[in-house]
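Quick one:
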Amino acid sequence: MFVQPLSEGEYFHIYNRGINGENIFKEKRNYHYFLQQYKNYCSEVFETFAYALLKNHFHLLVYVNKNVQVPKHNGQGMIRLSASRQLSHFFNSYAQSVNKACQRTGPLFENSFERRLVDDNSYFTDLICYCHSNPQIRGFVKDFSAYEFTSYNSILANNNSFLEAQKVLDWFGGADAFEKAHNSNYQDKDMRKLFVGYG
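Output:
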């Protein structure tokens, strides 16, 4: 089976779920820790345009930065960061923390991670709206804008240190257009066509 590489200079929808559908977020603090660790491990290799964290799975819309290099730990020269490797470090770190806190063992995630290339402008737009609408589609809330663990409100407030909030707002044509697009997308389109098998 072909696995799409995380090619530099490309946009991707990255997603994963808990093994056997198990919740990967056991309590509220897990959501915050997931985002903190994502920022720690992945903010240099990705530009992040949207995210959604939903009990047993998550979605990310990212651009893979080109030729990211950081100083080696010994200060002698530079090392090039790999997006796939940074994601692996991130997932391992998060899983180890949850396992320790919950006194569980074994894998937390079903796979290493899934990804789809985003190479179409309308898909990029729809995917942002889909990520943010997902909690309402899944029945977690009656109004997606009230859900705490997507990037929707952080983009509107433009106050998140790792999100490309201004680029997203500019893409939609400003905050009002961003809100309008989400409402019309949810009402007028079958967002389920973007499902990846588990939401």
